[in-house]
Design brief:
By secondary structure, the chain is an alpha+beta fold. It has a domain of about 110 residues. Helices cover about 15% and strands about 25% of the residues. Strands 1-2-3-4-5-6-7 form a 7-stranded antiparallel beta sheet, covered by helices on one side. A hairpin with an 8-residue loop joins β1 and β2. The protein is elongated, with a radius of gyration of 27 Å.
Length: about 170
């Protein structure tokens, strides 16, 4: 892992997608600024993870690693179909894979390839913007955020005072 690294930048790269591979329930994809495409698929019930790596500098070669319950099942170069060790290909991307937003996926990997078991980086908390609060049609749904002018003037909750008493 890098020293004094801002992992929240890496965390923003990951986008949730529909799984392209059959049998996987969750899928995340990230593209680095240099054009490398990283993908992680999870089959929650079988505790299986599929890591896909397409390195831009290698003319579209695709490497796949399949891990089941913390044990490597298969490491493959998809463009040639040969079984090859891909630890050296995954090593530069350890920090990026460690910042995946899914803790189940990282736990299933079990610390393989130097990837952390816990997600690195902070989650961004979404702030509510003023224009996202609806008030135009709230009265249709029975939502009254504040009392109207006439409700405040003719309110019975107001305590009665004699006008000549100060």
């Amino acid at each position: 892992m890098g020293f004094n690294q801002d992992y929240s930048v890496f965390r923003r790269w990951w986008k949730k997608e529909t799984p392209p591979a059959k049998g996987y329930t969750k899928s995340y994809s990230a593209t680095t600024p240099s054009g490398d495409i990283l993908q992680a698929d999870l089959n929650f019930h079988e505790k299986k993870v599929r890591l896909t790596l397409e390195i831009a500098g290698e003319n579209g070669r695709i490497y796949i690693a399949t891990v089941k319950n913390g044990e490597v099942i298969q490491e493959k170069d998809l463009s040639t179909g040969r079984m090859v060790p891909i630890y050296s290909k995954l090593a530069p991307f350890q920090d990026i894979f460690s910042s995946l937003p899914d803790s189940d996926l990282l736990n299933t990997l079990g610390g393989l390839y130097g990837i952390s078991r816990n997600p690195l980086g902070q989650t961004e908390e979404r702030t509510v913007r003023p224009w996202e609060l609806s008030n135009r049609y709230d009265h249709i749904f029975g939502i009254h955020r504040e009392r109207s002018f006439w409700e405040r003037v003719f309110s019975r909750r107001r305590e009665y005072r004699e006008p000549w008493i100060v």
